[in-house]
Amino acid sequence: MASESVPVRLPMTLEEFLTYTGWEGDAPRERMGVALEYFQNAVPLSYLSRPASDPVTPQGKSLGPNPFSLPKSDKTDPRPSEPDPHLVPNRPREKTPFNLSMLMQTIDFSHPVSVWLIPKGARLKAFHTACDAGTRLGRFFTLLQTSPGTLAIPHDQTVPEIYEATCSFSSLASTVADAYTDWAMNRRVLPQYRHGGGHQFYIWNPELKLRCAPALDETPFQPVVCGLQLYT
């Protein structure tokens, strides 16, 4: 049985988000508020509220929700480090994980979260698989000196690609949280627990703001004012 689809009404306040998802832990509320405000202002609400569908194996077998996804109906669900996807119970949930909650879970809130100005000409880096290099553009980027082992990405995403900003724009800067990658097995790779710790920049519509560029020295960034407060 797949997760039930429960409509999500956005925008949400931080308290509404915490209540809906059942978010646990003592993450600083100010940092969570910066991320929540940015996502709901920079990303279409229609995308953020979209349910995260249950993935299937290459053979078409439903895996059920990734056990990392929020919200959870069972707080005792484990976070397995070496799972067998076929043994993970496929539980129905009262509330379906949705894109906003998935984006919030990419961030390690024990570190600062800020909105940065990416100036025209600045360079960022992303890692791809050998077959995706030069053809697939994601929405998460990092600093030029970052290694793939700190980005909680699948083990075969090791081919670096350098991008140059074609205009100035704001981006959410944060630290990568640990993640449970390749749950869907859509690349025929078993799920793995991967560690974060590196810097990441979330960019909506990167195809309108970045272009492939040769590897050059990194351009320094400057923080951008959000409302009445300067996040640094």
Give a description of the structure.
- The protein has 232 residues and is an alpha+beta fold.
- Strands 3-8-5-1-10 form a five-stranded antiparallel sheet, covered by helices on one side.
- The protein is built from four helices and twelve strands; from the N terminus they run H-H-H-H-E-E-E-E-E-E-E-E-E-E-E-E.
- It has helices spanning 14-21, 29-42, 45-48, 99-104; strands at residues 114-118, 123-128, 140-141, 159-165, 169-175, 179-181, 192-194, 199-202, 210-212, 222-223, 225-226, 229-230.
- It has one domain.
Task: Provide keyphrases for this structure.
232 residues; 12 strands; 5-stranded antiparallel sheet; 14% helix; globular; alpha+beta
Short characterization:
The chain is α+β, with helices and mostly antiparallel strands and about 230 residues long. It is built from 4 helices and 12 strands, in the order ααααββββββββββββ.
What is the N-to-C order of secondary-structure elements (H for helix, E for strand)?
Answer: HHHHEEEEEEEEEEEE
What kind of sheet is the major sheet? 5 strands, antiparallel
Spans where pLDDT lies below 50 across 5 or more residues: 73-92, 225-232
Strand order of the largest sheet: 3-8-5-1-10
Task: Please estimate the helix content.
Answer: 10-25%
What structural class do you assign from the helix and strand content? Answer: alpha+beta
Oligomer category:
single chain
Number of helical elements: 4
Number of domains: 1
For the terminal residues, how far apart are their CA atoms? 45 Å
User: How many beta-strand segments?
Assistant: 12
Q: Calculate Rg over CA atoms.
A: 18 Å
Mean pLDDT level: 78
Q: Strand-residue fraction?
A: 15-25%
Shape: globular
